[in-house]
Design goal:
The protein is an alpha/beta fold. The protein has a single domain, classed as Aldolase class I (TIM Barrel, Alpha-Beta Barrel). It contains eight helices and 15 strands. Strands 3-15-14-9-8-7-6 form a seven-stranded parallel beta sheet, with helices on one face. Helix 2 links the parallel strand 6 and strand 7. Helix 2 packs parallel to helix 3. It is globular, with a radius of gyration of 18 Å. The relative contact order is 0.16. Bound molecules: flavin mononucleotide. Flavin mononucleotide binds next to strand 5 and strand 13.
Amino acid sequence: MNLNVTIPSSVGEIPLKNPLMPAAATLGNLIEHARYFDLNELGAMLPNSMFIDSGSPTTAKKICKTNNGFISALSKNNMSIFEFKEEIIPYLPWKTTPLIIDMKATDMYQMEKLAAAINDIKEIKGIEINLNCPYGPGTPYWQNSEQLKDLVRRVRNAAPDKWLIAKVPGGDIPVEQISTDCQAGGADAVTSYSSLNGSVIDIYTRKYRCGGGGSGGFSGPAFKPVGLLMCRRAVAAVDIPVIGIGGISCAEDVIEYIMAGAYAVQVGSANLSRPDFMPRLINDLKNLMQKLGINSFEEIRGTAQVE
Ligand SMILES: Cc1cc2nc3c(=O)[nH]c(=O)nc-3n(C[C@H](O)[C@H](O)[C@H](O)COP(=O)(O)O)c2cc1C
Protein backbone atom coordinates (compact mmCIF):
# COMPACT_ATOMS: atom_id res chain seq x y z
CA MET A 1 0.00 0.00 0.00
CA ASN A 2 1.21 3.47 -0.92
CA LEU A 3 0.20 6.65 0.90
CA ASN A 4 2.22 8.95 -1.37
CA VAL A 5 0.56 11.58 -3.49
CA THR A 6 2.16 13.62 -6.24
CA ILE A 7 0.57 16.99 -6.93
CA PRO A 8 1.24 18.64 -10.30
CA SER A 9 2.14 22.34 -10.22
CA SER A 10 3.81 25.05 -12.29
CA VAL A 11 6.96 24.74 -10.16
CA GLY A 12 7.26 20.99 -10.70
CA GLU A 13 5.62 18.01 -9.06
CA ILE A 14 5.01 18.27 -5.32
CA PRO A 15 5.58 14.85 -3.74
CA LEU A 16 3.86 14.28 -0.39
CA LYS A 17 4.43 11.24 1.84
CA ASN A 18 0.70 11.24 2.50
CA PRO A 19 -2.19 13.61 1.72
CA LEU A 20 -2.52 15.04 5.25
CA MET A 21 -1.49 18.54 6.30
CA PRO A 22 -2.66 20.70 9.19
CA ALA A 23 -4.99 23.60 8.30
CA ALA A 24 -3.59 27.08 8.85
CA ALA A 25 -3.28 28.12 12.49
CA THR A 26 -4.39 24.84 14.02
CA LEU A 27 -0.97 23.33 14.79
CA GLY A 28 0.65 26.43 16.31
CA ASN A 29 4.09 27.16 14.94
CA LEU A 30 4.60 23.40 14.44
CA ILE A 31 7.70 23.18 16.59
CA GLU A 32 5.62 22.91 19.80
CA HIS A 33 4.25 19.64 18.40
CA ALA A 34 7.66 18.12 17.71
CA ARG A 35 7.70 16.76 21.24
CA TYR A 36 4.51 14.81 20.60
CA PHE A 37 5.37 13.35 17.19
CA ASP A 38 7.93 13.45 14.38
CA LEU A 39 6.85 16.31 12.09
CA ASN A 40 8.25 14.24 9.22
CA GLU A 41 5.17 12.05 9.48
CA LEU A 42 3.05 14.87 8.00
CA GLY A 43 2.33 15.13 4.28
CA ALA A 44 3.17 18.84 4.53
CA MET A 45 3.70 21.36 7.34
CA LEU A 46 1.50 24.47 7.73
CA PRO A 47 2.02 26.70 10.76
CA ASN A 48 0.06 29.66 12.09
CA SER A 49 -1.23 32.05 9.41
CA MET A 50 1.23 34.91 8.93
CA PHE A 51 1.17 38.61 8.23
CA ILE A 52 4.44 40.15 7.04
CA ASP A 53 4.88 41.76 10.48
CA SER A 54 4.17 40.39 13.91
CA GLY A 55 0.97 40.87 15.88
CA SER A 56 0.62 41.73 19.54
CA PRO A 57 -1.53 40.20 22.26
CA THR A 58 -5.01 41.60 22.76
CA THR A 59 -7.77 40.90 25.25
CA ALA A 60 -10.17 39.81 22.48
CA LYS A 61 -11.68 36.35 22.94
CA LYS A 62 -10.26 34.35 20.06
CA ILE A 63 -11.50 30.78 20.40
CA CYS A 64 -14.71 29.31 21.73
CA LYS A 65 -15.71 25.64 21.84
CA THR A 66 -19.26 24.76 20.80
CA ASN A 67 -20.96 21.38 20.45
CA ASN A 68 -19.26 19.68 17.50
CA GLY A 69 -16.88 22.49 16.65
CA PHE A 70 -15.10 25.73 17.36
CA ILE A 71 -15.65 29.41 16.68
CA SER A 72 -12.34 31.17 16.07
CA ALA A 73 -11.19 34.69 15.27
CA LEU A 74 -7.45 34.79 15.82
CA SER A 75 -6.80 37.97 13.79
CA LYS A 76 -3.20 39.19 14.05
CA ASN A 77 -1.70 36.86 16.63
CA ASN A 78 1.26 35.67 14.56
CA MET A 79 4.99 36.11 14.64
CA SER A 80 6.34 37.84 11.53
CA ILE A 81 7.65 35.86 8.60
CA PHE A 82 11.16 37.14 9.41
CA GLU A 83 10.96 35.99 13.04
CA PHE A 84 9.57 32.66 11.88
CA LYS A 85 12.52 32.28 9.50
CA GLU A 86 15.10 32.99 12.20
CA GLU A 87 13.50 31.32 15.22
CA ILE A 88 11.49 28.37 13.93
CA ILE A 89 12.51 27.22 10.46
CA PRO A 90 15.98 25.97 11.50
CA TYR A 91 14.25 23.41 13.74
CA LEU A 92 11.75 22.14 11.17
CA PRO A 93 12.35 19.15 8.84
CA TRP A 94 11.77 21.29 5.73
CA LYS A 95 14.21 19.24 3.63
CA THR A 96 12.03 16.15 3.86
CA THR A 97 8.53 17.58 4.42
CA PRO A 98 7.27 20.56 2.40
CA LEU A 99 6.70 23.72 4.45
CA ILE A 100 3.78 25.91 3.36
CA ILE A 101 2.90 29.36 4.72
CA ASP A 102 -0.68 30.66 4.81
CA MET A 103 -0.46 34.41 4.16
CA LYS A 104 -2.76 37.10 5.57
CA ALA A 105 -2.61 40.75 4.57
CA THR A 106 -4.44 44.04 4.99
CA ASP A 107 -4.42 44.59 1.22
CA MET A 108 -3.09 43.09 -2.02
CA TYR A 109 0.08 45.18 -1.93
CA GLN A 110 1.01 43.89 1.49
CA MET A 111 0.19 40.36 0.29
CA GLU A 112 2.49 40.89 -2.69
CA LYS A 113 5.31 42.09 -0.41
CA LEU A 114 4.89 39.08 1.86
CA ALA A 115 4.96 36.72 -1.13
CA ALA A 116 8.17 38.37 -2.39
CA ALA A 117 9.76 38.01 1.04
CA ILE A 118 8.81 34.33 1.16
CA ASN A 119 10.12 33.74 -2.35
CA ASP A 120 13.61 34.48 -0.95
CA ILE A 121 13.28 31.88 1.80
CA LYS A 122 14.48 28.64 0.24
CA GLU A 123 13.24 26.44 3.06
CA ILE A 124 9.60 27.32 2.23
CA LYS A 125 8.10 25.20 -0.55
CA GLY A 126 4.66 26.73 -0.90
CA ILE A 127 2.40 29.65 -0.05
CA GLU A 128 -1.32 29.75 0.57
CA ILE A 129 -3.18 33.02 -0.07
CA ASN A 130 -5.79 33.55 2.62
CA LEU A 131 -8.64 34.98 0.55
CA ASN A 132 -10.22 36.72 3.51
CA CYS A 133 -7.97 39.50 2.20
CA PRO A 134 -8.17 42.43 2.82
CA TYR A 135 -7.98 41.56 6.52
CA GLY A 136 -9.74 44.44 8.24
CA PRO A 137 -12.04 47.02 6.66
CA GLY A 138 -12.80 46.88 2.94
CA THR A 139 -14.73 44.69 0.53
CA PRO A 140 -13.22 41.21 0.19
CA TYR A 141 -11.36 40.90 -3.12
CA TRP A 142 -13.17 37.63 -3.92
CA GLN A 143 -16.36 39.63 -4.47
CA ASN A 144 -14.82 41.18 -7.58
CA SER A 145 -13.42 38.77 -10.18
CA GLU A 146 -10.95 41.28 -11.62
CA GLN A 147 -9.58 42.24 -8.20
CA LEU A 148 -9.29 38.62 -7.19
CA LYS A 149 -7.37 37.70 -10.35
CA ASP A 150 -5.18 40.78 -9.84
CA LEU A 151 -4.38 39.69 -6.27
CA VAL A 152 -3.47 36.15 -7.34
CA ARG A 153 -1.45 37.40 -10.33
CA ARG A 154 0.53 39.78 -8.11
CA VAL A 155 1.35 36.97 -5.72
CA ARG A 156 2.23 34.63 -8.61
CA ASN A 157 4.65 37.20 -10.03
CA ALA A 158 6.13 38.05 -6.64
CA ALA A 159 6.78 34.39 -5.78
CA PRO A 160 7.53 32.61 -9.06
CA ASP A 161 9.49 29.84 -7.31
CA LYS A 162 6.79 28.74 -4.88
CA TRP A 163 3.91 26.28 -5.06
CA LEU A 164 0.95 28.67 -5.03
CA ILE A 165 -2.27 27.62 -3.30
CA ALA A 166 -5.32 29.86 -2.88
CA LYS A 167 -7.56 29.20 0.13
CA VAL A 168 -11.23 29.88 -0.62
CA PRO A 169 -12.75 31.99 2.18
CA GLY A 170 -15.58 30.99 4.49
CA GLY A 171 -19.25 31.84 4.78
CA ASP A 172 -21.74 31.89 1.96
CA ILE A 173 -19.47 32.07 -1.10
CA PRO A 174 -19.53 31.17 -4.82
CA VAL A 175 -16.80 28.54 -4.66
CA GLU A 176 -16.82 27.89 -8.44
CA GLN A 177 -16.26 31.53 -9.37
CA ILE A 178 -13.57 32.05 -6.73
CA SER A 179 -11.72 28.85 -7.72
CA THR A 180 -11.77 29.62 -11.45
CA ASP A 181 -10.60 33.20 -10.83
CA CYS A 182 -7.72 31.84 -8.75
CA GLN A 183 -6.81 29.42 -11.53
CA ALA A 184 -6.96 32.29 -14.06
CA GLY A 185 -4.71 34.40 -11.81
CA GLY A 186 -2.06 31.67 -11.80
CA ALA A 187 -2.75 29.56 -8.69
CA ASP A 188 -1.36 26.01 -8.78
CA ALA A 189 -4.00 24.62 -6.42
CA VAL A 190 -7.06 25.61 -4.43
CA THR A 191 -7.92 24.84 -0.81
CA SER A 192 -11.66 24.51 -1.25
CA TYR A 193 -13.06 26.35 1.80
CA SER A 194 -12.19 27.94 5.10
CA SER A 195 -15.09 27.66 7.53
CA LEU A 196 -18.69 28.66 8.08
CA ASN A 197 -19.41 31.81 10.11
CA GLY A 198 -21.01 31.58 13.52
CA SER A 199 -21.77 33.19 16.88
CA VAL A 200 -22.20 31.93 20.42
CA ILE A 201 -23.78 33.83 23.34
CA ASP A 202 -22.81 33.43 26.98
CA ILE A 203 -26.28 33.53 28.54
CA TYR A 204 -24.88 34.44 31.98
CA THR A 205 -23.04 37.58 30.86
CA ARG A 206 -25.33 38.15 27.83
CA LYS A 207 -22.25 38.69 25.70
CA TYR A 208 -21.12 37.18 22.43
CA ARG A 209 -18.31 34.82 23.24
CA CYS A 210 -15.83 35.18 20.41
CA GLY A 211 -14.37 37.62 17.91
CA GLY A 212 -14.19 41.41 17.82
CA GLY A 213 -17.64 41.67 16.19
CA GLY A 214 -19.12 38.77 18.15
CA SER A 215 -18.62 36.16 15.45
CA GLY A 216 -15.90 34.03 13.93
CA GLY A 217 -15.19 31.05 11.69
CA PHE A 218 -17.18 27.95 12.66
CA SER A 219 -15.23 24.77 12.00
CA GLY A 220 -15.23 21.17 13.14
CA PRO A 221 -17.09 17.91 12.55
CA ALA A 222 -20.57 19.48 12.19
CA PHE A 223 -19.32 21.34 9.15
CA LYS A 224 -17.91 18.36 7.24
CA PRO A 225 -20.83 17.82 4.82
CA VAL A 226 -20.60 21.51 3.83
CA GLY A 227 -16.82 21.28 3.39
CA LEU A 228 -17.18 18.12 1.32
CA LEU A 229 -19.73 19.79 -0.95
CA MET A 230 -17.43 22.82 -1.40
CA CYS A 231 -14.60 20.46 -2.32
CA ARG A 232 -16.77 18.63 -4.84
CA ARG A 233 -17.88 21.94 -6.39
CA ALA A 234 -14.30 23.26 -6.62
CA VAL A 235 -13.13 20.00 -8.22
CA ALA A 236 -15.85 20.30 -10.85
CA ALA A 237 -14.99 23.95 -11.55
CA VAL A 238 -11.20 23.90 -12.06
CA ASP A 239 -8.44 21.92 -13.77
CA ILE A 240 -5.89 22.52 -11.01
CA PRO A 241 -5.61 20.23 -7.96
CA VAL A 242 -7.96 20.84 -5.04
CA ILE A 243 -7.06 20.42 -1.37
CA GLY A 244 -10.17 19.43 0.58
CA ILE A 245 -10.95 20.88 3.99
CA GLY A 246 -13.69 20.96 6.55
CA GLY A 247 -14.60 18.92 9.61
CA ILE A 248 -12.18 16.04 9.12
CA SER A 249 -12.07 14.03 12.32
CA CYS A 250 -11.35 10.44 11.21
CA ALA A 251 -9.80 8.38 8.43
CA GLU A 252 -13.18 7.76 6.80
CA ASP A 253 -13.54 11.53 6.30
CA VAL A 254 -10.19 11.66 4.49
CA ILE A 255 -11.26 8.89 2.10
CA GLU A 256 -14.52 10.75 1.40
CA TYR A 257 -12.63 13.90 0.42
CA ILE A 258 -10.29 11.96 -1.88
CA MET A 259 -13.29 10.21 -3.45
CA ALA A 260 -14.78 13.69 -4.02
CA GLY A 261 -11.67 14.49 -6.06
CA ALA A 262 -9.22 16.09 -3.59
CA TYR A 263 -5.48 15.47 -4.02
CA ALA A 264 -4.78 16.20 -0.37
CA VAL A 265 -6.66 17.41 2.72
CA GLN A 266 -6.18 19.89 5.52
CA VAL A 267 -7.14 19.01 9.08
CA GLY A 268 -8.04 21.91 11.38
CA SER A 269 -9.87 21.88 14.68
CA ALA A 270 -9.38 18.15 15.25
CA ASN A 271 -5.80 19.14 16.15
CA LEU A 272 -7.19 21.02 19.13
CA SER A 273 -8.60 17.77 20.53
CA ARG A 274 -5.12 16.31 21.14
CA PRO A 275 -1.62 17.35 20.08
CA ASP A 276 -0.80 14.03 18.40
CA PHE A 277 -4.01 13.88 16.37
CA MET A 278 -2.22 13.99 12.99
CA PRO A 279 0.01 10.90 13.39
CA ARG A 280 -2.91 8.96 14.85
CA LEU A 281 -5.02 9.91 11.82
CA ILE A 282 -2.24 8.81 9.44
CA ASN A 283 -2.07 5.47 11.20
CA ASP A 284 -5.86 5.05 11.12
CA LEU A 285 -5.81 5.92 7.43
CA LYS A 286 -3.30 3.13 6.72
CA ASN A 287 -5.48 0.63 8.59
CA LEU A 288 -8.64 1.78 6.83
CA MET A 289 -7.03 1.55 3.39
CA GLN A 290 -5.94 -1.97 4.19
CA LYS A 291 -9.44 -2.90 5.35
CA LEU A 292 -11.01 -1.41 2.19
CA GLY A 293 -8.38 -2.94 -0.12
CA ILE A 294 -7.22 0.48 -1.39
CA ASN A 295 -3.63 0.43 -2.63
CA SER A 296 -3.20 4.09 -3.52
CA PHE A 297 -5.09 7.38 -3.53
CA GLU A 298 -4.83 7.53 -7.32
CA GLU A 299 -7.09 4.51 -7.39
CA ILE A 300 -9.96 6.28 -5.59
CA ARG A 301 -9.52 9.99 -6.41
CA GLY A 302 -12.76 11.44 -7.77
CA THR A 303 -14.50 8.08 -7.95
CA ALA A 304 -17.65 9.02 -5.98
CA GLN A 305 -20.74 8.62 -8.19
CA VAL A 306 -24.15 10.21 -7.96
CA GLU A 307 -26.72 7.44 -7.50
C1 LIG B 1 -8.41 28.04 16.40
C2 LIG B 1 -8.48 28.22 14.93
C3 LIG B 1 -7.78 29.27 14.34
C4 LIG B 1 -7.83 29.45 12.96
N1 LIG B 1 -7.11 30.48 12.39
C5 LIG B 1 -7.02 30.57 11.03
C6 LIG B 1 -6.18 31.51 10.40
O1 LIG B 1 -5.52 32.31 11.09
N2 LIG B 1 -6.09 31.51 9.05
C7 LIG B 1 -6.81 30.63 8.28
O2 LIG B 1 -6.68 30.63 7.04
N3 LIG B 1 -7.63 29.74 8.85
C8 LIG B 1 -7.74 29.68 10.19
N4 LIG B 1 -8.55 28.75 10.77
C9 LIG B 1 -9.37 27.90 9.90
C10 LIG B 1 -8.69 26.59 9.63
O3 LIG B 1 -7.46 26.75 8.97
C11 LIG B 1 -9.63 25.71 8.79
O4 LIG B 1 -9.94 26.40 7.59
C12 LIG B 1 -10.94 25.42 9.52
O5 LIG B 1 -10.68 25.13 10.88
C13 LIG B 1 -11.70 24.27 8.85
O6 LIG B 1 -11.15 23.05 9.11
P1 LIG B 1 -11.71 22.06 10.27
O7 LIG B 1 -13.20 21.95 10.07
O8 LIG B 1 -10.96 20.80 10.04
O9 LIG B 1 -11.40 22.70 11.56
C14 LIG B 1 -8.57 28.57 12.16
C15 LIG B 1 -9.27 27.51 12.75
C16 LIG B 1 -9.24 27.34 14.13
C17 LIG B 1 -9.99 26.18 14.74
